[in-house]
Design brief:
Length: about 525
């Protein structure tokens, strides 16, 4: 009986020692993976290997010890986790010399030639709306730098496309539903393969962008970009590509006078008169003038005057974007063929709408109030509004595919009603009645025009020593005559003075000539 008690105490002591040692081993293994010491990764990794070897030895001894003891407990799950971590660490495979693929920069490099571009035209700006604008000219030169003699080039092309990217497409994760490309023009500078000499070769290009095209934009629903892509393909070697994005803007002319609007807010007698500019620009401030009349009313029954006092004013610039997300041929809904074509086209897209605030401010003071009487009481305020400094914006746009971006200015005023005895405006009493007055004004956000002259309105160059009109001609002269033509040539100045002296035109195709010229002509005819 005593020996059984001794064996029981000895086995329990061994099991406790095994559990304590297992916990210590697990703590040693977890220590190198602690994220709190990022600067000691190299040392901790070395310690993992040293600990792992000692751990394996201790595990072997502990396993042998547990096999000899019949009453020893089963190994702890912490020990199994330690074995798994050590096994995974020693069986990790790495391939430092293996390179999969090639970067995009290396794919377009060629040591034998390079492509560069220079834009010679002014900034691309459409003046006027889509119906009236004459477009913009884009011109420049492409430079193909050949670094070897007699280098064979198969083709050299350039393309200008309009890239429309839908940020909320018809079908998510579909490339064709997200991106739509429209080719404007394509240049083929080398119609056939050519062996080019060493040096820089210039290739000029030009294109007239129509005024109906949309301007570049990057909004919450879609983005429009003009992408210019160039590709030179040699006979031997990698092709050379060059890509550039053109920034196309539209400028609308502002009116000469600010717009005047009058609003009435029934059932009150408040009338607001507002002067504001209809066309604003992203950079700079704009001025709005507001005058409120009818804010006082006489109550003859109790001999008091009721006032509407302005407590708070908020202005807000809102941008509304609308677009139609088209569907590709794969995801287009199938409709019966008996429907009209317009109805089928309308169902091939989903309309998207988004509204965001690009400028906002709240005022609690800054206006002039006059509450002297019931007839001449008024509130006047002149405020400045502009776009937020860090807010993203999109100028007004209207495209043929249904995309549209508009802006509006919202004015919100909070007024409260008060009353005071006639002749005692200082004895004011609150009535507890308040109203919110809102006004919306259509506003056009556009880029500044700069010079403001389109390409078709530019004046041609003026040269010196050139008269303002073509030279005058006399009667038809017989060149085959004996006298010849040398006797009938008159100076240009004499012809001009004769034209100024005689204003009576000659019948037919004749023009007025001087008297000396007429005498010479008559003598020659005789």
């Amino acid at each position: 009986m005593p020996h059984r008690v001794t064996n029981f105490l000895r086995s329990s002591t061994n099991s406790l020692e095994n559990q304590v040692s297992n916990l210590k081993k697990a703590a040693i293994i977890r220590r190198p993976h602690s994220p709190s010491r990022p600067g000691r990764n190299s040392r901790s990794s070395e310690r993992v290997f040293s600990y792992a070897s000692s751990i394996e030895e201790e595990i072997d001894t502990s396993n042998n010890r547990s096999e000899t003891n019949l009453h020893a407990s089963a190994p702890s799950p912490v020990l199994k986790m330690a074995d798994t971590v050590v096994a995974e660490h020693h069986h990790r495979l790495s391939f430092p010399g293996l390179h999969l693929g090639r970067s995009s920069k290396e794919a377009h490099t060629n040591p034998h030639m390079s492509v560069d571009m220079k834009i010679e035209s002014p900034p691309i700006v459409f003046y006027g709306n889509a119906e009236e604008s004459s477009g913009a000219l884009v011109s420049g030169q492409l430079f193909l730098d050949i670094k070897e003699d007699n280098y064979d080039v198969d083709s050299f092309t350039a393309t200008l496309n309009i890239h429309v990217a839908q940020k909320r497409p018809f079908t998510v994760h579909c490339t064709e539903c997200t991106n739509q490309y429209t080719e404007i023009v394509k240049w083929d500078f080398l119609p056939q393969p050519l062996s080019m000499t060493k040096g820089v070769h210039a290739f000029p290009f030009s294109v007239l962008l129509g005024g109906h095209l949309p301007a570049s934009m990057d909004g919450p629903l879609m983005s429009i970009a003009y992408e210019f892509k160039t590709e030179a393909i040699p006979k031997d070697g990698l092709p050379v590509k060059l890509e550039k994005v053109f920034d196309v803007k539209r400028s609308l002319p502002p009116p000469e006078l600010p717009h005047h609007s009058v609003r009435v807010f029934p059932p009150t007698n408040i009338k607001a008169s507002v002067h504001y500019p209809q066309v604003i620009h992203p950079i700079g401030t704009n001025t709005l003038t507001l005058r409120m009349d009818g804010i006082a009313k006489l109550n003859p029954k109790v001999n008091t005057i009721e006032y509407w006092k302005l407590k708070k004013l908020t202005w807000r610039l809102e941008e509304t974007a609308k677009t139609v997300a088209p569907s590709c041929e794969k995801h287009a809904p199938k409709e019966p063929k008996d429907q009209p074509q317009e109805a089928q086209q309308a169902k091939k897209g989903v309309q998207r709408t988004d509204t965001r605030i690009i400028g906002e401010k709240t005022l609690f003071s800054g206006w002039k109030s006059n509450y002297s009487g019931a007839d001449d009481s008024s509130v006047e305020i002149e405020l400045e509004y502009a776009l937020g400094k860090h807010n993203k914006y999109t100028c007004d746009t209207k495209a043929q595919d249904g995309s549209e971006v508009t802006h509006q200015l919202m004015i919100e005023m909070v007024v409260s009603q008060e009353w005071a005895p006639v002749g005692k405006p200082s004895l004011v009493t609150q009535t507890g009645i308040g109203r919110i007055l809102r006004m919306h004004f259509s506003t056009v956000l556009t880029e500044r025009g700069g010079i403001g002259i389109s390409w078709d309105n530019e004046a041609p160059p003026i040269y010196q020593d050139v008269p303002p009109s073509p030279p005058a001609y006399s009667e038809d002269i017989d060149i085959d005559s004996n006298d010849g033509i040398s006797e009938h040539i008159e100076p240009l100045d004499a012809a001009r003075s004769s034209v100024e002296g005689r204003g009576t035109p000659i019948e037919g195709r004749r023009t007025p000539v001087s008297a000396s010229a007429s005498a010479s002509v008559s003598a020659a005819s005789e």
